[in-house]
Design brief:
Helices cover about 40% and strands about 15% of the residues. The chain is of the alpha/beta class and about 160 residues long.
């Protein structure tokens, strides 16, 4: 509407309304009167820790394994590695003590990564409890369901 204010009122043309900003005190008063649901204490989830290992710790974990071992070779800068960590946490939460999951940072442990030819990230190595059985190796992001399937069928 390109009319004067008087013409706008007479013709019924809509005018844009502006509102003054709320003062901080008024905003605080409004927020303090909002009803809130009572805070309830959520049960804390069980702690299934994915253990960070160095080269010596990895050697010890492999030598003393009494349950299936999953080794996650990762890097902190790797996006899929972050997603894989969440999948492994889900597996650890579901399977609990039936499996041990460890992580090795390939940037911190370059010698280990080089000796095992870790090139693609994330790389998972599945080590069973039988001493003569070869380990399984995967590269790339795997969903938790696939990880559990490998544990159940291959280890």
């Amino acid at each position: 509407c390109r009319e004067s204010e008087k013409q706008k009122r007479q013709s019924g043309c809509q005018t844009k309304q502006t509102f003054a900003p709320l003062s901080l005190r008024l905003l605080f008063d409004l927020l303090s009167t909002v009803s809130r649901a009572p805070k309830t204490q959520l049960p804390s989830p069980p702690l299934f820790q994915v253990e960070q290992l160095d080269a010596a710790g990895l050697e010890a974990a492999i030598a003393s394994r009494d349950k299936p071992l999953i080794i996650d070779f990762y890097a902190t800068w790797c996006g899929p590695c972050v997603l894989m960590a969440k999948e492994l946490e889900a597996v650890a939460a579901e399977l609990g003590d039936a499996v041990k999951i460890v992580k090795v940072d390939v940037d911190a442990e370059e010698a280990v990564a080089s000796s095992l030819s870790i090139q693609g990230l994330p790389t998972l190595v599945f080590v069973g409890t039988e001493p003569g059985k070869p380990a399984l190796r995967t590269e790339g992001l795997l969903p938790a369901a696939t990880i559990k399937e490998i544990i159940a069928n291959e280890l």
